[in-house]
Amino acid sequence: MADTQVEAALRERPMSPHLQIYSPLISMVMSIVHRITGAALFFGTLILAWWLAAAAIGPEAYAQFMSIADSLIGRLVLFGYTWALIHHMLGGLRHFIWDAGKGFNLGTVDLMAWGTLILSVSATLAIWFATFRMMGA
Questions:
Q1: Are 109 and 68 in contact (CB under 8 A)?
Q2: Residues 94/53, Cβ–Cβ less than 8 Å
C-alpha cells in the first residue's frame, strides 16, 4: 500500500469516543473504585501483617507500631483501609448478585452502585464512631 492509501485508510477509520465524550455513570465509577480499593487492600493488608507481627514480637515493637498508627496520618490510613475493605466487600456482593443473574436492569444497577457507596461510607463512619466511643475519646 502506498503512503497516501495508508493515510486515507487511517482518516476513514472510525474513532472511538474519548473519555471526555462519555458522561461518567455511577456504575462505571464504582467499577473503577472497586479496582482501586482492591489494590489498596493489598497495601492495607501489609499494615495488618505489620500490626500482627509487632504484637507477636513484643511490647516495644507493638508500642512502636501503635505510635505510628495513633498519629493523624496513621488514623487517616486506617480509616481509608476500613472504608476500602467495606466498600470492596459490598462491591463483591453486588457482583455476586450479578453472577446469580439478578439485578441487570439499569435502575437496579444504579441503585446497587449508589447503595454500595452510601453503605460503605455509613458503615465506616459507624465503626469509627463506635470505636472512639468505646475508647472514651
A1: no
A2: no
User: What are 116's three cell numbers?
Assistant: 454500595
Cβ(20)–Cβ(74) below 8 Å: no
Query: Is the pTM for the entire model greater than 0.90?
Result: no
Q: Which domains does the chain have, with CATH numbers?
A: 27-135 (1.20.1300.10)
- What CA–CA distance (Å, rounded) separates 87 from 128? 15
Q: Is the Cβ–Cβ distance between 86 and 78 less than 8 Å?
A: no
92-115 pLDDT tens trace: 999 999 999 999 999 999 999 999
Is residue 65 within 8 Å of residue 50, measured between CB atoms? yes
Tell whether residue 88 is among the known ligand binding residues. yes
- The single residue listed with the C-alpha cell 507481627 is 53
